[in-house]
Amino acid sequence: MFGSNKSVKSESVGKGSTHILATWGIVGFIAAACAVLIGLETSRILTQRSDVLADSQKDTANLTASLIQHAELTFGTADAILIGVVDRLEQESLGPETRQRLRAWFIQEVRHSSQFLSFAVIDSDGAMIVGSAVEKEPGNFSDRAHFLYHRTH
Fold first, then answer.
1. Longest Cα pair distance anywhere in the chain, in angstroms?
2. C-alpha span between 102 and 93 (Å, rounded)
3. CA distances from 49 to 42, 44, 46, 56 (A)
4. Tell me: the pLDDT tens digits for 96-106?
């Protein structure tokens, strides 16, 4: 009786250890598979992140170039109009007919250039001589900070 129990116990211990080894093997395989899947997903996410960052840098560079080009065109247009105004003012007297032509030209330039709201010629005292804005009274800019700055510098 005692002898048969020992052999049954030894057989059940052998089967139990095989069962535990198989369980740990399955757990190890599942853990390794999960680690591989997590690694692959992490690699995909990092690659996708790098692609998005590269695209963002390219978009930012394109936007910067576009803004620079827009600013250069705006300053070029303003410079051309300013040169034209100076030339006209130096060549012609500032009679009512000249003021009307300048005003019409200013209005035309404002309509053709979306970058500008208005143009005006201001004398050394800050009084508007002619402008594109429709106003009954000419404005006075002598108290504005930008006028004061340019008057003193």
1. 135
2. 12
3. 10, 8, 5, 10
4. 898 899 999 99
Structure tokens at 50: 């790098």
Q: pTM for the full model?
A: 0.59
Which 3-state string (H, E, C) describes the chain? Answer: CHHHHHHHHHHHHHHHHHHHHHHHHHHHHHHHHHHHHHHHHHHHHHHHHHHHHHHHHHHHHHHHHHHHHHHHHHHHHHHHHHHHHHHHHHHCCCCHHHHHHHHHHHHHHHHHCCCCCCCEEECCCCEEEEECCCCCCCCECCCCHHHHHHHHC
**Contact at 8 Å (CB) between 147 and 127?**
no
Report pLDDT digits (tens) over 87-131.
Answer: 998 998 888 898 899 999 999 999 988 889 989 898 888 888 888
